[in-house]
Design a protein that fits this description.
mainly beta; 606 residues; 2% helix; Immunoglobulin-like; 47 strands; 7-stranded antiparallel β-sheet; single chain
Length: 606
């Protein structure tokens, strides 16, 4: 089965439908939004979270469409899980906005493959179906299904000339259906399945990737532009990635120039502008909005980058993320010119959002099982209420997944743990987040809460000691750590100040720790030395017990008693000596405990 899955996964790469199709159209998937390829008339979520997901076992999912009531329609097939295509079935799932399957229609004489359904203004769902007679190039059909999952009609050309791997139907505002194939025939149909025209492409050009522009009958192919009821309107050779604009002009990449030049044609076929792409060759036009064009480019070293260029001008930005060249990218622009990039196949399935300046806004990992291997193909579509719908497949495990992402209602950053422990370098702080939304980072703050010594007073003030950057927006657990090596011994409290991108913040709970020292009898040199008028004297003990720390002048006279009582070992004790009442000169500090004694020289210089 793995071998079969891999063969079909490679097959999908070969026949993958152009990004200029309605597979990624905005909501709803009807004619009035097709003019801006891969550009939605609505917005996605500002701060996303997973709302629901569905695992459809033993099914391979194609594209999606969304009805006027928010119902999500998903094409599915068992074809690519079966050795014998004659046993393959097709499915259409109707899913409500809460993730409940309303109904499933089973197609017994074919399968939709990786095509997308289309919803007309009349609410009828149109499905392309490949025949299941055991031959991939079997005769195709077009199904019409109503919103209750009841078949309205099925149209079949009844001729082997209309064969191939098929394409998604396109619908104009008046309900006219355009349906092409990988063969050379295009049908223009009415909503009742009657045929208006049958168009045979000259020179054997593929009609699988038709993008109708308006009701004047003009439509676009992968490498030609035609007028439906006439001969050639105009034609160019060697073009691909054709994107028609609202004003009738056409944007396309010159395939004969190795993808390094953007051509813009007027509706009559005359050249409007020619723009050499500033980042060089091997570029593909993948999305277009009113303001921006989006390109992907293969870089040296087998990586892919995404560029966002102003539509009228040459200013551009490069997305901050790069991908492996084998990774499949599904790209959509929303109405606020936020760019959504869904990665799949070679890298773990993840969706990114980028601002028009190329800076990452957020990213979200899709919770696929750890056993999922090659996830392909993937489809992305925007829905109402800032929702993103995604279908993705595990090429080997026979599972298809549907995801709904919506606006987050969670706390910006969910901190699940925060601990402080000692190690050989100081105090190690570790913390973990379950989710992060617009997380700028963490200020690390510390305060002293005392020593195990009555001579040291507690400090209530917090001090910032460092900063650790956050992960922005993510729905996966992240672990952080920081080592405070600036302390020697004592009892300390730590807390985190979590800061959001907008400057708002909140504090974590406190973590307390005691940093002990070896049990050694030792008197340290005072600091500073020379001093005026105060200095600090530190010492450690080998064992608990009665201890004295006294100051003597050069004549051996005792002039001050700093410690006189029970003291604890395993801590570094620090005592302040104020010599404001003494004259300049040399003094001596003497530490005594359990018969041990040590002396250090102090210099008071006023």
């Amino acid at each position: 089965m793995k071998q079969i899955g891999f063969i079909f996964a490679l097959f999908f790469i070969t026949i993958r439908i152009s990004l200029a199709q309605l597979a990624n159209s905005p909501w709803p998937m009807v004619g009035h939004d097709y003019r801006l390829s891969n550009s939605a008339s609505i917005c996605g979520p500002n701060i996303p979270e997973l709302k629901w997901n569905i695992n459809l076992t033993e099914q391979y999912l194609g594209g999606m469409a969304i009805g006027a009531d928010g119902t999500i329609y998903v094409n599915a097939s068992s074809a690519f899980q079966n050795v014998n295509l004659a046993d393959s079935l097709g499915y259409v799932h109707a899913i409500d906005s809460s993730g409940n399957i309303k109904w499933t229609y089973t197609i017994k004489d074919g399968y939709p493959g990786i095509t997308s359904p289309a919803v007309g203004n009349n609410g009828i769902l149109y499905i392309h179906v490949d025949g299941n007679d055991g031959n991939i190039a079997a005769i195709e059909k077009l199904y019409a299904i109503d919103t209750n999952g009841v078949k309205k009609w099925v149209y079949s050309p009844g001729s082997a000339v209309f064969t191939g791997t098929g394409s998604s139907p396109s619908i104009w505002d008046d309900g006219t259906i355009f349906w092409g194939s990988k063969g050379t025939v295009l049908f223009r149909m009415n909503a009742d399945s009657s045929i208006n025209d049958i168009y045979n492409s000259p020179q054997g050009n593929s009609i699988s990737n038709t993008v109708p522009l308006s009701n004047n009958g003009r439509f676009y192919l992968e490498s030609r532009v035609f007028l439906f009821n006439d001969d050639f309107l105009w034609s160019t050779v060697g073009w691909f990635n054709i994107f028609p604009d609202k004003d009738g002009s056409v944007y396309c990449i010159n395939g004969q120039s190795d993808g390094d030049t953007l051509y813009v044609y007027n509706s009559s076929g005359t050249i409007k502008s020619i723009l050499p792409l500033p980042w060089g060759n091997k570029s593909t036009l993948t999305a277009m909005s009113d303001s921006f064009l989006v390109f992907t480019k293969t870089l040296p070293g087998d990586s892919t980058s995404v560029y966002i260029m102003a539509k009228y001008g040459s200013l551009y930005s490069q997305c901050s993320k790069k991908w492996d060249s084998a990774t499949d990218l599904n790209i959509v622009l929303d109405s606020s010119n936020v760019l959504y990039v869904l990665q799949s196949w070679w890298e773990p399935s993840r969706i990114y959002a980028f601002n028009s300046n190329g800076k990452e806004k957020w990213h979200l990992n899709l919770p696929l099982p750890v056993t999922a291997s090659y996830q392909y193909p993937a489809h992305l579509i925007l829905g109402q209420n800032k929702t993103i719908y995604i279908t993705i497949n595990d090429a080997f495990s026979s599972h298809g997944y549907v995801y709904a992402l919506g606006e987050s209602t969670s706390l910006p950053v969910e901190l699940t743990s925060f601990t402080a422990v000692t190690n050989n370098k100081g105090i190690l702080l570790t913390w973990q987040t379950a989710t992060e939304v617009n997380n700028f980072g963490f200020d690390i703050e510390r305060r002293t809460i005392g020593m195990r010594s009555s001579t040291i007073t507690q400090s209530a003030s917090w001090t910032k000691i460092s900063f650790v950057a956050g992960d922005g927006t993510s729905n996966i657990a992240h672990s952080y750590s920081y080592t405070d090596s600036s302390v020697s011994s004592g009892a300390f409290a730590y807390r985190l100040k979590q800061i959001n991108n907008d400057g708002t913040y909140k504090y974590s709970s406190e973590a307390e720790v005691i940093l002990s020292v070896p049990k050694v009898f030792a008197l340290q040199q005072n600091y500073p030395n020379p001093f005026n008028p105060t200095t600090t004297i530190t010492f450690t003990l080998a064992q608990d017990g009665f201890t004295t720390l006294k100051i003597y002048d050069v004549l051996g006279r005792e002039v001050a008693v700093l410690v006189n009582g029970e003291m604890k070992a395993e801590v570094e004790n620090a005592v302040s000596f104020n010599a404001s009442k003494f004259s300049s000169g040399v003094y001596f500090s003497k530490l005594e405990s359990h018969g041990n004694a040590q002396i250090k020289k102090l210099v008071l210089m006023k």
